[in-house]
Design a protein that fits this description.
By secondary structure, the protein is of the alpha/beta class. The protein has 9 helices and 12 strands.
Length: 277
Amino acid sequence: MGDKILANSNKQLKRFESIVNSDKALKKVKEGDKLKVGVDLGTSSIVLTVLDKDDNIVYGAYEYDHAVQDGIVVNFMESVNILRRLKAKAEEVLGVELKTACGAIPPKTGEKSAKVVANVIEETGMLCTGVEDEPTAAAKFLRLKTGTVVDIGGGTTGISIFQNGKLTHVIDEATGGFHMTLVLGGRYKIKNEEAEKLKRNKDKEEEVYSVIKPVVEKMAAIVQNMGSEVNDPVIVVGGATNFDEFTKTFSKVLKRKVYKPLYPQFVTPLGIAMFDN
Ligand SMILES: Nc1ncnc2c1ncn2[C@@H]1O[C@H](COP(=O)(O)OP(=O)(O)OP(=O)(O)O)[C@@H](O)[C@H]1O
Ligand SMILES: [Mg+2]
């Protein structure tokens, strides 16, 4: 079940990764074509995704940012400026104007933060067609009807359980990749910026992972605490899951198979665009 879901998603994620931030499109588009646009205002980066009307990937780009904290926009103008740049670049590469976009917020962050996300989008000249729940967007991209999505980003861990296409349980915890960075910084007595670089250094992965493994175990324990509500397959997404041993640790705590797609940080942003109808 999980393997089948991942096979299809991985094919698309590989294609997306091959063009993201490359100023290239996967498909030619022309004036009048319906495009679906996703805006993920994350704690770590702002991602813009563009799909065609049949959800085929067309284009994508991102910029790192600090304008969003724990899923909440804390610097409105900075978010707008980044999104303006991403939109302008997309329009230059595609040769058409982006007219609509869908946004997303972590579960349970409420009406107010949804409104802020919509305002950021509309400030760049696009009509905001909706603000989705982030894990629901991830599940949409994964075409997951029954199962559990754990989205571990920079500042938040969202756990969403689906049953026959319906969201039955959702939890959002203020922990994520930034927490791992803090633990690394503390262990080596280095500043956050340096710790962040060390965390992403593939050559140091084994050493880094041994330090941050307890954080991963704690994240898995949050899922474990949801008990019998957890549905299979359990799929982890989000940038903070980018460690080879990540699913192994999760599986051990949860005592069940855990799946992770390729380039897990792009799952939610691509799912958001699928809601731009
Ligand atoms: N190769 C990597 N190795 C380890 N961690 C990584 C890697 N790439 C990204 N991360 C971490 O993933 C996190 C960002 O993930 P993601 O892009 O999913 O977050 P976001 O959507 O911006 O944040 P949030 O969902 O919390 O608002 C950061 O903490 C970053 O350090
Ligand atoms: Mg995110």
